[in-house]
């Protein structure tokens, strides 16, 4: 029987308490904390026992909950919502091993087996009128994998950078009154890009909850997406060698963390996605890397892209060549 998460009675330590299906209290000691790390490589199906158990808190402060029994980001959000008795629609995004709005710690298509999850809830809504005085707004957009697009990076001295009330982490809820919920990041980015220079448009944004001891740091740091230190003391979260990877087919598998060549390739591809499309998506970049990893030339790579679900992006030939260059460069550096 899968273990369902409940909130523990303590928020400062990790001697967590859960309940079984009959409501009996059940405590988790350090053996439970090490459960994920002891998972064998050949147990690639998350339904196999022992179950993977992840520690989670609400980023603005809460008891520690135990989360398990999910195989996608949407299922993870549902489990977190059940654990903390909130609506899953309230969760904007999650960060790993930091409670801050730190885009370098953003949960994407994978979670390290010893990562600590922090869920960021919806906070204040704000509506801002903007004049597009330049062709580029200076935004990089990503999404949470569950229907919310939000701002991941703001370019220094851009149109958006000069607007004080817009920050990294803000969810783009509406554009000129049109609901953006359910749209992917590239769709939102394309709609923003299609706004003519000189036009005035309105953004309705929702910022993450900011309260209690949660420090996002100085405004300049948050907009630069600077990394934050990990959790202090106790267990060394985020230092494991394996990761739970969410697959496009709805399955999740335990895999080794990326090697140096793969990291370099995914990072370079993500940079191209940002430059050409205004989006940042590590999972998409990883999928592109995998399509090109075993190819010997750009034509085979282009054919693999066309025969995948990435065909709908309509990548141009020039962009495919740029992506292929990033892949081959990373291969050479990894040798």
TrEMBL record:
Location of the PDZ domain: 127-194
Domain of life of the native organism: Eukaryota
InterPro entries: GH2_GIPC (IPR055349), GIPC1-3_GH1 (IPR056814), GIPC1/2/3 (IPR017379), PDZ (IPR001478), PDZ_sf (IPR036034)
Region (Disordered): 1-47, 214-234
Pfam families: GIPC1_GH1, GIPC1_GH2, PDZ
Chain intervals with Low complexity compositional bias: 33-44
Protein name per Swiss-Prot or TrEMBL: PDZ domain-containing protein
